[in-house]
Write a structure and sequence with these properties.
two-stranded antiparallel ribbon; alpha/beta
Length: 287
């Protein structure tokens, strides 16, 4: 039986017609081996018939309350970059409200108690599928394997496959198979075990299923916790998150208090020495 609300959620189907034969040939890529699923394939280009069926069925499968339908296409994997705490600190100092970094926005969403847009940080998943060049539909683009093949859109429509009991169970397993070690973690509310494809190692208790990115995520989320709590509080009261940056910059020492500082050491248009990211004339020069 379909859980209430599952089929009413927005649906995303990632199209990856040539991802398996990407010429970048990155050593880390998890998708290149998928070409073995279709031996003898000469053309990885999606036919017009499959493309037409994909677009039409994808639109038809969306709930009527959805305001926007997003199509995603991948012809190769981008370089995966790690999360650097230094990047967060630079963003906090200079770029809040001007530059939007997805992982920071996802984190703030969690601190606000809202449902994260990215499936990897949700308690359950199952609404982000993948379609291959021939119309085969899979539970997720991280699980393009025979076990997770739901069917072909030329035989059964996307709406039927995506809202099946089998797909709902796939999404529910993300939460149900989370190790006990993760369930007790104090940053579980933002991480939720991340993507199941990365749950490859054992917990300190010996239970299999710990995400191999766990230590990095834990360190990052613990580091940003005080800032995210402050920003979430501002937003709950209808105030801009930028207030947090202003308060923090206001507590920094004025450059006039720094040993050896003189007003002629800095130009009006130079970055202010307090670290606010603003020009000196628009910052501490006023004080």
């Amino acid at each position: 039986m379909i859980a209430p609300g599952f089929s009413e959620q927005g649906l995303h189907v990632m199209s990856k017609p040539v991802g398996a034969v990407c010429n970048l040939d990155c050593a880390y890529c998890y998708y290149l081996k998928k070409k073995d699923l279709y031996p003898g394939t000469k053309s990885w280009r999606m036919t017009e018939k499959t493309l037409d069926a994909y677009i039409r069925q994808y639109i038809e499968a969306q709930p009527p309350v959805l305001d926007e339908i997003i199509f995603g296409w991948q012809g190769g994997e981008p370089t995966l970059l790690g999360i650097d705490i230094a990047v967060f600190e630079e963003w906090l100092k200079c770029d809040v409200g001007r530059t939007f970094v997805q992982i920071f926005d996802e984190a703030l969403t969690a601190w606000l108690g809202l449902v994260p847009p990215l499936c990897i940080f949700r308690k359950q998943c199952g609404r982000a599928l993948a379609i291959e060049h021939n119309g085969d539909l899979y539970s997720c683009d991280h699980f393009v394997e025979p076990t997770y093949k739901l069917g072909n859109i030329h035989e059964r429509p996307i709406a039927e496959l995506a809202n099946s009991e089998r797909q709902e169970r796939f999404g529910r397993d993300k939460e149900m198979k989370l190790p006990a070690y993760c369930r007790k973690c104090d940053v579980r509310f933002v991480c939720n075990g991340e993507c199941p494809k990365n749950r490859l190692i054992r917990t300190p208790d010996g239970e299999l299923g710990l995400n191999f990115l766990c230590k990095g995520y834990y360190r990052f989320f613990k580091h940003i916790d005080p800032v995210m709590k402050e920003m979430a509080e501002e937003l709950r009261h209808g105030r801009p998150a930028m207030n947090v940056v202003r308060r923090r910059n206001a507590t920094r020492r004025s450059p006039k208090k720094r040993r050896g500082w003189r007003s002629d050491n800095i130009g009006r248009n130079d970055p202010c020495l307090c670290g606010s990211g603003r020009k000196y004339k628009r910052c501490c020069m006023k004080h």
